[in-house]
Specification:
Elements lengths: L9 H14 L1 H35 L4 H43 L5 H10 L1 H39 L4 H28 L3 H8 L3 H11 L4 H32 L7 H6 L3 H38 L1 H9 L26 H5 L24
Helix pairs in contact: 1-11, 2-3, 2-11, 3-4, 3-5, 3-7, 3-11, 5-6, 5-8, 7-8, 9-11
């Protein structure tokens, strides 16, 4: 697709996103499906394990303490091992989708193999970017909000014990609820601030932290539009999820769930239902991840067009003018210094005396050739 000669509106960016996705659907879906399956398999294994353990705790309360310790140990191992694996899968998939979206937007005809080749070549760079995004946009605000909520809970307990009344406790509870909302808003704002880091690193060949700084610079003035894009894709994700699950739920309710009670279905969901939900989550992730990648690439191009005239640079590249022609060098010889400095200003400013064309010595008369004595 050719470069545009003007900044785009949000509607035009979303329209171009749909066009690129529709024209290159096998490419983008082929890149996203395998990482989505691995991501859902790693994260779904933890949910399957917890679902299998909780009914056993209800049936045998005496063995609750060892089971709870085992559950906590599995959760710690998942944080130490599973979360880095999930971050690595996300880094590979999203960087490959970025490379494919950049090449498709330029009309270069990318392939799944070429996108993954570039992604694995720069794996540690993109792993560093997603680690920084997770640290700044999720971990730090969540830990800060958790500490404040914990302190608020302690203050609420002390106030209720000292007879402060239910009004004070309700106000403190409302304050903690608003604090959680503020933490969520802070996470979202920080994520949007750094959302163009992958594209900036892929296009400009920058390392993780310079890519984050570049994203913070480029997203100025358009963070609201990017938020609207995220919101619309999120709504689209929910619609796609229910569109995939509705026919399956109808079939299961007519067969398996017909003999089960509603409470048993909620507390002890069958393994078939969980596996079906994991498969649907895999398909949903494979369908929606390319939309984020393509839209962010178009936002990156649009922001550089608005700020730096990136469209002119792209048009020059398409015309074969990768570099501007350099001006020819003009050699100016150095001025030779004076052999001897002038004695005075008058002597230096006086014009030079003309040299004689022919001189004859005064002591010797001229001779005439060709005469004999």
């Amino acid at each position: 697709m050719a470069a545009t000669s003007r900044p785009l509106t949000l509607g035009e960016i979303l329209d171009r996103t749909v066009q690129l996705y529709r024209r290159n659907f096998p490419l983008f879906f082929g890149i996203a499906v395998l990482p989505s399956a691995l991501y859902v398999a790693v994260s779904g294994s933890l949910s399957l394990y917890y679902t299998s353990k909780f009914p056993a705790l209800q049936q045998n309360p005496q063995a609750a303490t060892p089971a709870i310790l085992l559950i906590v140990l599995v959760a710690v191992l998942f944080v130490l091992i599973g979360v880095p694996i999930l971050l690595g899968i996300s880094a590979v998939s999203f960087s490959a989708l970025n490379f494919a979206a950049i090449a498709a937007n330029r009309g270069e005809g990318p392939t799944i193999r070429s996108a993954y080749a570039r992604s694995f070549k720069l794996f540690w760079r993109f792993a560093g970017i997603i680690a920084l995004q997770t640290l700044l946009a999720a971990l730090v605000p969540t830990v800060a909000a958790g500490l404040l909520v914990f302190l608020g809970a302690i203050v609420t307990a002390l106030v209720s014990r000292s007879g402060g009344g239910p009004v004070v406790a309700i106000l403190l509870g409302l304050f903690m609820f608003l604090l959680i909302l503020a933490a969520f808003a802070a996470c979202l704002w920080i994520w949007i601030r750094f959302c163009l880091a992958f594209t900036a690193s892929a296009v400009e060949d920058k390392k993780p932290w310079p890519s984050m700084q570049r994203s913070a610079q480029l997203t100025k003035g358009s963070r609201g539009r990017i938020f609207v894009m995220y919101l619309m894709v999120f709504i689209m994700t929910i619609v796609a999820y229910y569109a995939l699950t509705l026919p399956i739920d109808i079939v299961l309710k007519l067969t398996m769930f017909k003999s089960m009670e509603a409470l048993a279905l909620l507390t002890k969901p069958p393994i078939v239902l969980q596996v079906v939900n994991l498969v649907i989550s895999c398909l949903e992730r494979a369908f929606t991840l390319p939309i984020y990648a393509i839209a962010l690439v178009l936002f990156y191009n649009d922001q550089r067009t608005r700020i730096e005239g990136y469209d002119i640079e792209q048009l020059m590249e398409q015309a074969g003018w990768s570099d501007l022609p350099t001006a020819p060098l003009i050699f100016t010889p150095p001025t030779p210094p004076y052999a001897t400095p002038p004695a005075s200003f008058a002597e230096a400013s006086a014009p030079p005396s003309p040299e004689p064309i022919f001189t004859t010595p005064a002591s010797e008369p001229p001779t005439v050739e060709g005469t004999g004595a």
